[in-house]
Amino acid sequence: MQTAPCEYRLLENGIHLFILNHSTRAASEFLLDQFYQVVLATSPDVLIRYIVDVHGVNNSPIRQTLERAQALNRQMTERAVTRGAYLHSNRAMAIIAEGLIRLIIHGSNDRLKFFHVSEFVQAVAWVLAE
Questions:
Q1: pTM for the full model?
Q2: Which of 22, 38, 85, 102 has the fewest Cβ atoms nearer than 10 Å?
Q3: What is the mean pLDDT of residues 54-66?
Q4: How many CB atoms lie within 10 A of CB 19?
């Protein structure tokens, strides 16, 4: 049985959970589409709390994904602020990805933090803080 490229669940605590299952451009596009559907459906005065689990993928197409995310952010001038955690299993890749994502959200009120996949409970607590 083949898994979906990206899974989405709304947790009972209001956190949007996205799990990237494949290291393909299609999977990354699917994740962005799901994420921006949540953003579009949320009032600009509501904080979007989310977790993206990328620990199961090794080489997602970072450049294309970030370029598309940057373009979408430019189009959405009035949107909800986000507070998100990313779960990873490779600290070196997480450092690179975090730096690139921070470039995209620079100048916004969005907040993000990276956690090792074993720190899910801490990630949830951080996302729910404030």
A1: 0.79
A2: 102
A3: 64
A4: 20
Q: How far is CA 20 from CA 9, 46, 52, 86, 129, in A?
A: 12, 25, 7, 11, 24
* CA separation for the pair 9, 101 (Å, rounded): 22
Higher pLDDT, 21 or 71: 21
How would you class 86 by CB atoms within 10 Å of its CB: exposed for 0-12, middle for 13-18, buried for 19 or more?
buried
Tell me how many degrees the CA angle 39-42-44 measures, rounded to the nearest 5. Answer: 95
Structure tokens that stand for 112 in this block: 């993000």
User: What's at 91, amino acid-wise?
Assistant: R
Residues 95-111, mean pLDDT to the nearest whole number: 63
Instruction: Calculate helix-pair angle for 62-75, 91-105, nearest 10 degrees.
Output: 20
Please, are residues 56 and 21 in contact by the beta-carbon 8 Å criterion?
A: yes
Q: What is the mean pLDDT of residues 71-91?
A: 75
User: Which residue, chain included where needed, has tokens 């949830």?
Assistant: 124
